[in-house]
């Protein structure tokens, strides 16, 4: 999966035998723990105290899904993705995603210099005792809010619905992958050309 997508919902069977059901169950538990991220504010439409605002709900679902829980976050990412955030910028309405990618240097490195090293599950800098030049590519992407699904109902008073959170995540991942995947392809091509 990592070779083709920037982001995906983690469901690979791990060494501990975890499968999709366990990962989703763990995500549901995290939704309960982080229920405050879904509290309706400022006159938003709500059901059972949970926001029905598509943007607010999606941001909560993203935040919970990208937190490292146990060994893995619920939303997994390509090794080149160093960081990814989604937020509502203060200066504009809507949704802004900021994705930082490990990139090859734009200039030739002098002898003895190092750059990103591929170590599963990500790219890492070499040890500090080596001269290192690290290049990153930061993508700042406004994402369309009208493609986010509207949450339907609370699971219980104050608890977000897992199905709604899953649908919000899937919509966000589709938008992010449409933007980021072509950059990953180009970066991989640049690595092969070196």
Helix-strand makeup class:
alpha+beta
What is the rounded distance between the termini? Answer: 24 Å
Mean pLDDT: 89
Portion of residues in helices? 25-40%
* Strands, total number: 9
Which sequence of strands runs across the widest sheet?
5-6-9
Taken in chain order, the helices and strands follow as EHEEHEEEEEEH
- Integer-rounded radius of gyration: 19 Å
**What portion of the residues fall into strands of 2 or more residues?**
15-25%
- Quaternary structure classification: single chain
Poorly predicted ranges? 12-17
What spatial form do the alpha-carbon principal axes imply? elongated
The largest pleated sheet is described as: 3 strands, antiparallel
> Count of helical segments?
3
Structure description:
The protein has 194 residues and is an alpha+beta fold. Helix content is 30%, strand content 21%. The chain has 3 helices and 9 strands, in the order E-H-E-E-H-E-E-E-E-E-E-H. The protein has helices at residues 20-33, 54-66, 162-193; strands at 7-9, 46-47, 50-51, 75-77, 81-87, 95-103, 117-119, 122-124, 135-143. The strands form 4 sheets. Strands 5-6-9 form a 3-stranded antiparallel beta sheet. The longest helix is centred in the C-terminal third of the chain and has 32 residues, at 162-193. The protein is elongated, with a radius of gyration of 19 Å.
């Amino acid at each position: 999966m990592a070779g083709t997508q920037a982001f995906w919902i983690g469901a690979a069977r791990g060494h501990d035998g975890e499968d999709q059901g366990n990962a989703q169950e763990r995500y549901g538990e995290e939704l309960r723990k982080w229920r405050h991220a879904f509290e309706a504010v400022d006159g938003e439409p709500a059901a059972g105290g949970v926001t029905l605002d598509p943007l607010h709900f999606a941001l909560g679902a993203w935040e919970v899904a990208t937190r490292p829980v146990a060994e893995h976050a619920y939303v997994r990412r390509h090794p080149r993705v160093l960081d990814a955030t989604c937020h509502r910028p203060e200066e504009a309405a809507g949704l802004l995603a900021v994705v930082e990618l490990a990139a090859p240097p734009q200039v030739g490195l002098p002898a003895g210099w190092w750059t990103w090293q591929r170590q599963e599950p990500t790219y890492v800098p070499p040890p500090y005792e080596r001269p290192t030049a690290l290049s990153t590519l930061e993508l700042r992407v406004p994402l369309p809010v009208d493609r986010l699904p509207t949450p339907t109902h609370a699971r219980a008073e104050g608890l977000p619905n897992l199905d709604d959170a899953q649908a919000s995540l899937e919509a966000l991942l589709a938008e992010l992958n449409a933007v980021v995947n072509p950059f990953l392809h180009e970066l991989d091509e640049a690595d092969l050309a070196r």
